[in-house]
Inverse folding.
């Protein structure tokens, strides 16, 4: 897609004025999908536009989508995004184009009057989990995160020999994926023995967050049929913010030899907004450069076009709101900020590797990037890094200190794509407040 075409498309304006504010995050060209509770309490599909949500099911009912193919119209009436994700790419493009036309400043007044009846103020919309993912995979794609964590546990060899050859990942727990805003219960588990060789058991004392981006799969691949790197990006439908909650003291005891288990499976938060890949086109950028001594990716992970445009320029930030801040009416404390473009592996490389053994991805499957961290200390995407494994508590603006999350702390993740000459595209927020453990 050329810059000339992008400039023409992104110069369009909406008759819905709040969508034309450059920093609103939900411009005409974004139209992130969501699922929200309608007046009857039942889930409905919508898209964000300015300060409102457009009810897509209502658009079907009032015949605004009559020119689209039957499968995509049916999918627009579903209770989650799964049927829509399963439609072919051409249908996704047709729906997006139709919605943009309905909200474009050139739309007829008669059309605007009908569309207005399907708009709900965002503040009045109860946002639900957008996708029912059958499978969830969490990668480890940030070399800066992997290096810092490795330095904590293996200072003599922070990165294991395989890291620069293979995108590391593990299969997570799909049943505990929750929409942002869902309270997170502090988990219990085993921790390292302090004495007598007997491990402890109880609520985690080092609860952590991880700033990540989730990639939702659209069209999957048949079992036994790998997806080549030049086709891999086409399997992605859109992205969301993701918080991979982690119990670090439990993790350090249980992760050997098979990796994360109960320290990760208790909850993973996803934001309610799914930003389609088409909305990210102006923010595509070259893959992060590799050190001269680093090995080249194996051929099945190498594509010249992916190296030119396979990364995404997206700022990701984490904030903390403590009970004391909340009581005092203070703003949340900014913990860190990083950029998705700094990942060692591109989204296409993650997908190509995931399917390289013939593993079949399904529509709605969720692939997470792993913690997104930058090279500088203040770009670390979790408390494990920011506190040097809990040894150096961070000082908050109100004088409080944290080396792990405490009960009633709230973590807020935000993400935005920003480029001169284009309106901001926001991923919204992904929130989660920590609740005390619940005894058996």
């Amino acid at each position: 897609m050329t810059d000339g075409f992008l400039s023409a498309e992104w110069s369009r304006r909406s008759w819905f004025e709040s969508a034309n504010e450059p920093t609103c995050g939900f411009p005409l060209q974004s139209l992130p999908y969501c699922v929200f509770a309608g007046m009857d309490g039942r889930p409905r599909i919508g898209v964000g536009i300015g300060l409102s949500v457009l009810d897509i099911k209502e658009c079907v009912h009032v015949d605004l989508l009559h020119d689209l193919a039957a499968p995509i119209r049916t999918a627009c009436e579903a209770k989650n995004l799964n049927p829509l994700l399963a439609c072919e790419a051409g249908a996704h493009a047709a729906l997006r184009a139709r919605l943009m036309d309905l909200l474009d400043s050139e739309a007829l007044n008669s059309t605007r009057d009908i569309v207005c009846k399907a708009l709900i103020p965002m503040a009045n919309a109860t946002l639900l989990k957008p996708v029912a993912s059958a499978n969830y995979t969490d990668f480890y794609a940030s070399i800066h995160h992997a290096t810092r964590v490795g330095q904590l546990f293996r200072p003599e060899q922070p990165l294991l020999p395989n890291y620069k050859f293979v995108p590391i990942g593990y299969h997570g727990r799909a049943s505990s994926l929750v929409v942002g805003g869902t309270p997170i219960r502090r988990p219990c588990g085993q921790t390292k023995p302090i004495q007598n060789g007997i491990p402890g058991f109880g609520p985690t004392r080092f609860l952590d967050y991880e700033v990540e981006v989730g990639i939702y799969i659209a069209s999957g691949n048949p079992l036994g049929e790998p997806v080549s790197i030049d086709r891999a990006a086409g399997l992605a439908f859109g992205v969301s913010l993701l918080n991979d909650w982690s119990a670090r003291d439990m993790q350090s005891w249980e992760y050997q030899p098979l990796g994360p288990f109960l320290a990760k499976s208790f909850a993973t938060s996803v934001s309610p907004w799914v930003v389609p890949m088409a909305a990210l086109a102006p923010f595509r950028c070259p893959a992060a450069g590799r050190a001269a001594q680093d090995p080249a990716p194996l051929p099945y992970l190498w594509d010249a076009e992916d190296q030119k445009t396979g990364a995404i320029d997206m700022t990701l930030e984490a904030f903390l709101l403590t009970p004391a801040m909340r009581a005092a009416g203070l703003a949340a404390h900014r913990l860190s900020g990083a950029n998705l473009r700094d990942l060692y592996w591109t989204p296409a490389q993650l997908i190509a590797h995931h399917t390289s053994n013939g593993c079949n991805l399904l529509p709605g499957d969720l692939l997470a990037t792993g913690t997104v961290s930058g090279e500088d200390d203040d770009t670390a995407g979790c408390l494990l890094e920011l506190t040097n494994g809990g040894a150096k508590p961070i000082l908050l603006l109100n004088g409080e200190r944290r080396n792990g999350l405490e009960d009633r702390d709230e973590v807020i993740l935000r993400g935005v794509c920003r480029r001169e000459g284009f309106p901001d595209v926001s991923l919204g927020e992904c929130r989660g407040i920590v609740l005390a453990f619940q005894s058996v």
